[in-house]
Design goal:
heterodimer; A: alpha+beta; Nuclear Transport Factor 2, Chain: A; 6 helices; rod-shaped; B: alpha+beta; Immunoglobulin-like; four-stranded antiparallel β-sheet; 37% strand
């Protein structure tokens, strides 16, 4: 059967498109299953925020909440009260810690520079996560606080925290 | 030979230059798309919370077109309740539901004042869908972000079922588990008693029938006594039998010549989609004499005019 010129053209176009798609797919697959080659170690400065963001990307909810709380606790341990204060839900701040200084005083009284966090329960209520934990201050005198933290996640590594304020 | 081949290639390129250009453009677009796809990182946190995935999956789904609308309606309703705009919130509830659950604004105000004693947050989840009725689970709780649960020892919430019934392209909202109320024509009539079923109220987990008993005799008729289980049953299309829940009465006794109307409730879940077919009264007692004295009961039964069961088709 002799094919017309038009038919040959159409066949050619389809063939070229098919090759293009095949090569594209191969390219995508290769990129996703990149072999680990020893690379030259490059020193790249990234801030803590980027590190945490990459850490929680593609993680489950429970793990993300634990990371967020761990970061908050780390801020308290390191005396980074400003960072911790900025993570608090605005209305919560208004209700309990109108100033950063007030929050700092509270944090110094209740948390030490070395703490252990034991998770009792993590429950989700819609967009809110309620973590029930026991925090032990590992510096003398050893004290333990049972506390609930509430985390509202608005994006990857974007969240606000509230917690049970002791002594109220 | 090579000259010949070279000529052939040149001729080929000349002949199909437009196809080749087209191909290269197409190739370029594909490369750009692949770059975008492989470099786009996932910035949306993964969550297992899916508002629109029903808790009870009976194969019926809620149309996507209603998802945003329902969310907006609930948000508006809760907003009004939080701001104590009673009338606005009240008017969002369908009239049949209002008439049944909150017959007047004052009763609704009492509910709002109790539940919304302070600013409340809420969560919703599609619970089940059946026959153009979409049921949501609504949880209302304190503003835990503002309080940090400081004044509570544990997390607590109010929960109720909210229904959205789709009819003629519109949604109507029912609260407190309300689904519908409709007239019924069930009737049983014999020489002793006439039993008619006038209304059926359907809620998420109950069917309540308004049953009227007319005693046509000079004798006392007892339908059920002292919350005896199994004397009144709801028969369903798949053969299951639900016993009456005696929350509104302990005994059903009709004096000679009297007519009484009683709501009889059965536990039955709307989203199971099982049709109720009849109500059966298993132990109708027509008694010559009746007292509430337990010591005389046996004697009264022995002297009964008749004892039988009757079924009212729904």
């Amino acid at each position: 059967m002799k094919l017309s010129k038009k038919s040959i053209r159409i066949i050619l176009i389809i063939f070229l498109i098919a090759i293009a798609i095949l090569l594209l797919l191969i390219g995508i697959l290769k990129k996703e299953t990149k072999e680990e080659k020893p690379e030259e170690i490059k020193t790249v400065q990234t801030d803590d925020n980027t590190v945490v963001t990459e850490r929680v990307r593609n993680r489950g909810e429970k793990e993300r909440m634990q990371v967020y709380l761990a970061e908050f606790i780390k801020n308290l341990e390191k005396g980074e009260y400003g960072k911790a204060y900025n993570k608090l839900y605005p209305e919560f701040r208004e209700n309990f810690f109108e100033t950063e200084e007030g929050f700092k005083q509270y944090a110094k009284q209740n948390y030490s520079s070395l703490m252990a966090v034991e998770y009792e329960d993590i429950q989700r209520q819609g967009a809110y996560y309620i973590l029930t934990v026991t925090i032990t201050n590992l510096e003398e005198p050893l004290t333990t606080i049972n506390q609930m933290f509430i985390i509202h996640e608005t994006g990857l590594n974007e969240y606000q925290i509230s917690f049970q304020v002791k002594g109220r | 030979m090579f000259t010949d081949l070279r000529l052939k290639i040149i001729n080929f390129l000349k002949k199909y230059k437009y196809h080749i250009i087209l191909f290269l453009i197409f190739w370029g677009i594909l490369i750009v798309i692949s770059q975008i796809l492989t470099n786009t990182k996932n910035d949306v946190p993964f969550t297992t919370f899916e508002v629109y995935k029903p808790v009870i999956d009976n194969g019926q789904t809620m149309p996507e077109k209603w998802q945003d609308d329902i969310e907006s309606i609930i948000d508006e309703y809760i907003g009004y309740c939080n701001r104590k705009e009673y009338e606005k919130a009240y008017n969002m509830i369908s009239k049949p539901c209002r008439d049944k659950i909150y017959p007047d604004l004052d009763s609704f105000k009492a509910y709002v004042d109790y539940v919304f004693s302070s600013k409340r947050l809420y969560t919703i989840k599609n619970y089940s869908n059946r026959d153009n009725v979409y049921i949501y689970r609504l949880r209302i709780f304190e503003d835990i972000m503002a309080t940090g649960l400081t004044y509570s020892s544990s997390f607590k919430y109010f929960e109720e079922k909210i229904s959205f019934t789709e009819k003629d392209g519109k949604l109507s909202m029912g609260v407190k588990g309300y689904i519908s109320e409709e007239n019924q024509n069930g009737l049983y009539d014999d020489k002793y008693i006439k039993i008619s079923i006038a209304k059926k109220y359907t809620s998420f987990d109950n069917e309540i029938y308004t049953v009227q008993f007319k005693n046509k005799t000079e004798y006392d008729i007892v339908i059920s006594e002292n919350g005896e289980r199994g004397e009144i049953e709801l028969i369903t299309a798949n053969g299951t039998i639900n016993r009456a829940v005696d929350e509104n009465w302990t005994s059903i006794h009709i004096s000679p010549g009297d007519t009484v109307s009683i709501p009889i409730s059965f536990t039955k879940f709307f989203d199971e989609g099982i049709k109720s077919t009849a109500i059966r009264f298993n132990n109708i007692r027509v008694l010559r004499s009746y007292s509430e004295d337990e010591n005389l009961k046996q004697q009264e039964l022995e002297n009964a005019v008749d004892m039988y069961s009757a079924e009212v088709t729904l």
